[in-house]
Design goal:
The chain contains six helices and nine strands; from the N terminus they run βββαββαααβαβαββ. The chain is α/β, with parallel strands linked by helices. The chain has one domain: Rossmann fold, CATH 3.40.50.300. The strands form two sheets. The protein has a six-stranded mixed β-sheet, with helices on both faces.
Length: 224
Amino acid sequence: MPAVVQLESLSKLYGSFVALRKITASFEAGRCYLLLGENGAGKSTLLRVIAGLLKPSHGVIRVFGEAKPSHVRDRIGYMSHAPMLYDELSAAENLRYFAGLYRERTCLTPETALASVGLDPMLERTVGQYSQGMRQRASLARVLLPQPDLLLLDEPFSNMDAASARQMLDLLARQRAEGKTILLTTHQRELAEPLADVIVMLQAGGVESFTQVGLAAPEQAARL
């Protein structure tokens, strides 16, 4: 099975600071990869490079076979720390706006996307009035709207209560079962580990280790 993401000696520098250090990895379809490490280990930077939001300083990246992730951006769903939503609009209004940006994809309806993350599609309250947990759910609904094949999720469980986090885990498990590839970072390892097929440990911008924890065959796990 071709890799969804391939990295070869990938590095990202900010002046003399090395954010990513010669990472070589391969990520397969239908697998969940849990990226762990201390603050500053390079987790968020790695997701941003794969999403096409940052250009690597050195090395090779291929996403769905393309050397420029921006060429396949419609197939990538990226969730950052910031919700990337308009505070003055309701969640449904936000999603209707974003759906109009995807001309090559068949999007979910805003109502379906919001219901899938446990939000009331008819809620007229603006996103600026949402709790942090509700904003996280609305942000995930935005990510799922174009039905991407690759999900890049940066701390998706932050500010969520236990029930909401479990609901998100169930939703992500269904996405993986449908063949989607998931790369996610979290400081809540015990929460996300049941979803993971492979745990990737990063330290000081480099890959320290990886551990297969799911049921994926060895040749389908990340090769680092």
